[in-house]
């Protein structure tokens, strides 16, 4: 989901080894401020204007003047800006022919069309796993298949993440890092209440029992904080739809058909009812967005929260003062024993502006992948870990990174992590249980928003009819959004 993957990107810099990103995702609310950067050089940005090259030899791009407008972190992300500035300096040392213009606009589905129409979008920009088909169908991302095929490290890229931006055999983006939705547990809160830590191969009933055991309404403590505000609410709930074996949509006869009003959907909604009305395990003020739910976890006001792990842990350890041994990362619970621990799979991607010239596109690709699989990238990571040690902060790697964990570079990265005591360690058992399922490719945000209304009704009114709620929601999504789509 856009909101969460981008928040993670703001908090972490190792996932893309300093390929910084920021803003806010999947709720469709990403905002970018201009932050006082130097005005773009309109003679040579990603608008495809003439003037970005000279009459240098046609066969050597390094001998031609090229200007690229890069995706740059927002002003509040001072640490990440520092790292990006270092990357710019190193890139221009190798490519002195390239002029770099900074642009801290962050992808927003409601703004991208205007940016493209006005030729104001950067040469490359951040986006999210849900946006692949949308951007490709609109013609707002460049086909970079040739650049990709010539990239020497393409076979070491994490295929689970990269495949989200490979459509009909063509490549339209480069993965930065990704996540599978997990459940993060405050072990200390369980210990304080005498609640046993569940097995990692846990179920919905285990989650319900744990949440019920920790909840203490008189003290304002909840056992779990499912998100109940904004598109986040629909995104959180969709994990349970997937775990019960449900789907959001299907393609039938060239049309997109809503399928979430299924038996699996009813089971998932009924489970939310149990958390709210039977166990009384969710916050009394349940209207929580991503930041609210993560903040509650950080402050010890809820024992469990569901999200991409690294952003939650970053705040819990470095802002909330929790200890690593008290913050446990679990897969999402299985519907029943022996079932899959399915979590929504999302991620951060960089895509290239199709209005850019071929030279600009190639240099943008080289910039995006500049630190990938490089010793300089490892050195930069090492420097970050040293600085975190000096600052007394923990470093939280993402569960899924741009490289395959078993690749040569994955092993080198682990060796860097192993040098430091302040790197958060995930349980070795979690990777075998994680089951990531990609978000739907059509109108995902509209579906999330519609389901958020359903969740809010369920949380505010006891005795709702799950099937009737889902049928009404499916009808809305179908008629308002899916019926407008023609699938080739």
Automatic annotation (TrEMBL):
Q: What is this protein called?
A: ABC transporter substrate-binding protein
Signal peptide annotation? 1-19
Q: Note the InterPro entries from the entry.
A: Bact_solute-bd_prot1, SBP
Give start-end positions of Low complexity composition bias: 36-58
Task: Please name the Gene3D superfamilies in this protein's record.
Answer: Periplasmic binding protein-like II
Keywords associated with the record: Signal
Short name of one Pfam family: SBP_bac_1
Organism the protein comes from:
Paenibacillus albidus
List the residue ranges of the region (Disordered): 30-58
State the organism's lineage: Bacteria, Bacillati, Bacillota, Bacilli, Bacillales
